Amino acid sequence: MYFMAQEEDLQRAERYKLISKILGDWSYANPSVPEINEIVPLPPARLPTWDGKLKWIEERKANIPPPKPSEALIELLAKAMVLDPKTGKPMPGSPVYSKED
């Protein structure tokens, strides 16, 4: 800190420590913090208020399922892989087709 003429910023350091702990707790799920510059802007910018929550974790806890693909997309992908679009099972002509299916 001394070489950059910056004052010690304990609140900023505490935020980094808290974010590091949160990311460590969720490391198995590959978390990300795209809003890091909004939470901890580079000095000398002042720290904005922060509720201690990360958007990624809030979205994950909300458990909102992804949007269902359109029927047209399902048909297109199934045709490309020679699959039945209703069941997803291989159809005759598919390299993975088996009569036992």
TrEMBL record:
Residues 2-91 form the DUF6396 domain. Pfam families: DUF6396. Keywords: Lipoprotein. InterPro entries: DUF6396 (IPR045653). This is Lipoprotein.
